[in-house]
Every structure is written in C-alpha cells, then in structure tokens.
Design brief:
Elements lengths: L7 E4 L3 H12 L4 E4 L7 H5 L3 E2 L3 H5 L4 E4 L4 H9 L14 E4 L5 H13 L3 E4 L2 E2 L2 H5 L4 E6 L1 H14 L2 E6 L1 H31 L4 H8 L7 H11 L9 H18 L4 H15 L16
Helix pairs in contact: 5-8, 8-10, 8-11, 8-12, 9-10, 11-12
The chain binds NADP nicotinamide-adenine-dinucleotide phosphate.
C-alpha cells in the first residue's frame, strides 16, 4: 500500500469522527466520508473529501476503512447491513478498522465477519477527547495483526502519534474499556466526595485547590476537579457515552468471569446522571448529582 495514494473511507462523523477525518483530509489523503446524517459531512466535503451515500459505497473505493460510531448497534449497522454496510462492498485485502469504543464480544464477531469478507481487521479504539482528535493527539490502543498495523500506521499517526499495539483484536477493546473505567471511577468518586466536603462547609474550589496538591490526585482528576469547581459542563466526553462504556465494562467483565463492583457502582451513578437530564453534559457534570 503506497501511503501517498492510500484511499481512506471514514464512516461516522460525530464529534470525534469529524475531527479525525479532517486530519486525514488536511494531510492529503484521498478520503471518502459517510454518515447517517449527511449534513455533518458538509465541512469535510468543502475541504476536499468525497461524499458517499452509504458505508458500502464509501468502502468500495477504499484501501483503509475506518468507523467511529456510538455503540455496538451503530457499528453493526455501518459494517454489517446487507445492503448499506461496509462489509458488503469491501475490497479484497482492504484494512477495516473499528475505532469506536465497543465490547470485546462484538469486536470478535466483527473481526470474523471482516475476515469472511476478505478484509484484514484491526480494533483500534482511541484515548483522548475532542481537542486531542482535532490536533492529532489521540492515543491508539490497537488489537490485531502487527503487519496490518504497520500498513495502517502512517494514517493512524495523522490522528494520533501514540500508537500502542495491545495484542489480539479483543484485547484492544478491553484495554480501552479499562482506561475509561479507571477514569470514570475516579470522576464519580471525586464528584461525591466534593459533595461531602461542600456540605461540611468547605467550598468546592478550596477543596479542589488542596486536593490537587496531593499525590492522590491523578493528572486527569486535577483537570476534572478544576472543571467541577468552575461548573463547566460543555461536552467533551458526554455522560451518556460514559454510561454506555460502563455498561460494556460490566458486560466484558461478566463474560470473563471477573468481578467489577466499583465499576458497577460507578455505572449506577452515571445512569442516575442520565436520568436526571445530564446525559449531554461532560463527564464532570456528574457532580451536579451531589451538590
Ligand atoms: N467523545 C469522546 O471524548 C470520545 C473519546 C474516545 C472515544 N469515544 C468513542 O468514540 C465513538 C464516537 O464518539 P463521538 O463522541 O464521536 O460520538 P457522537 O458525537 O455521538 O457521534 C456518534 C456517531 O455515530 C453515528 N451513529 C449513531 N448511531 C448510528 C446508527 N444506528 N447507524 C449509523 N450511524 C450511527 C452518528 O451518526 P449521526 O451523525 O447521524 O447521529 C455519529 O456519526 C464512541 O464509541 C465513543 O464512545 C469518544
């Protein structure tokens, strides 16, 4: 695959996908884009991307097909729909990359389906949020064949220079869920503890200023603490996606026979936040439950 000429299809132009695809277009890749809601492709098409009516039509032109969609149901639709799904028209030998955060169980099925369609497959979820996607600073957690990753590497690098090969396809998916679980558990714990401190008369901003000086505050917790103190809830990593990911963490653990009581408790907190109407707020908006 000669990199200057690599034809990329990008499926899913949500908050993350639109920014990732824009990086590829800016880097000079010939990119065909598609999205359930066509209007979201307009800025990319204005900058030189080609529009395709369906994932199948986008994949028909591509050597590298990347999907970045919400959840397992969306991934199933964009890859496996018999008429519109990308697998229906993948080129022989193309590389199919699923970058969404999904369950290892689904990734296993999808890898098999891609193989049956004559393609090679990588599970390549990303760590980082909208600003990282916009500036090409995502971290990739890749599962799959090392030689296939080597071929996809230059295009992935345009979207994020930190590329970790984790192991088999399902291991990339589990690693990503692990990262989000560790993050989400911390945020839920910080949110409830700030609620306790606040009721004890310690102002949230004062509590955050003290906590962030201590070794118990991770770099991520410091950023989240500052956002809670500033009551900034504009979405980067929205609570509804956090809740979806915790559902996947619990399901993946169950399938592996592992216990995750802390993750299950955090999941219940994020679910409550969705029920309270905070689903579109950023992850730190969960603090509103404990004010
Ligand atoms: N936001 C983050 O900080 C972040 C960070 C790392 C990873 N992720 C993961 O990356 C993925 C995308 O996240 P995002 O923030 O870009 O989400 P988003 O803004 O909600 O975008 C979701 C995308 O999925 C498409 N979609 C949803 N359901 C579909 C269906 N049934 N059929 C076809 N397309 C469908 C949407 O199409 P429409 O435009 O038509 O709605 C949109 O393109 C998720 O798996 C998320 O967990 C997110």
């Amino acid at each position: 695959m000669s990199e200057q000429m690599t034809q990329v299809a990008f499926i899913g132009l949500g908050a993350m996908g639109v920014r990732m695809a824009a990086r590829l277009v800016e880097a000079g890749y010939p990119v065909t884009v598609t999205n359930r809601t066509a209007a979201r492709a307009e800025p990319l098409v204005a900058n030189g991307a080609r529009w395709a009516e369906s994932p199948a039509a986008a994949a028909a032109e591509a050597e590298l097909v990347i999907s970045m969609v919400t959840d397992v149901a969306a991934s199933r639709a964009v890859w496996c729909d018999p008429e519109r799904g990308a697998l229906a028209r993948l080129r022989e030998g193309a590389i199919a990359i699923e970058a969404s955060t999904l369950t290892p169980g689904w990734i296993d099925e999808l890898a098999a389906a891609a193989g049956d369609a004559g393609a090679r497959f990588l599970a390549a979820p990303v760590v980082g949020t909208r600003p990282h996607a916009e500036s090409g600073r995502l971290t990739w957690l890749v599962g799959g064949d090392v030689a296939t990753l080597a071929e996809a590497h230059p295009a992935l690098q345009v979207m994020g220079g930190s590329i970790h090969h984790v192991g088999e396809v399902t291991q990339g998916a589990v690693m990503k869920l692990a990262v989000n679980a560790l993050f989400g558990v911390q945020v839920a714990a910080l949110a409830e503890i700030l609620g306790v401190l606040s009721r004890a008369g310690v102002a949230v901003e004062d509590a955050v200023a003290v906590l962030e000086q201590m070794a118990i505050s991770s770099p991520a917790a410091k950023v989240v603490g500052a956002a809670i103190a500033a009551r900034q809830y504009a979405p980067m990593f929205p609570i509804e996606l956090v809740e979806k990911d915790f559902g996947y963490v619990v399901a993946a653990a169950e399938a592996l026979g592992a216990e995750v009581p802390a993750a299950a408790a955090a999941r219940a907190v994020y679910r409550r936040a969705c029920e309270a109407g905070y689903g579109e707020h950023n992850i730190n908006g969960v603090a509103q439950l404990f004010e």
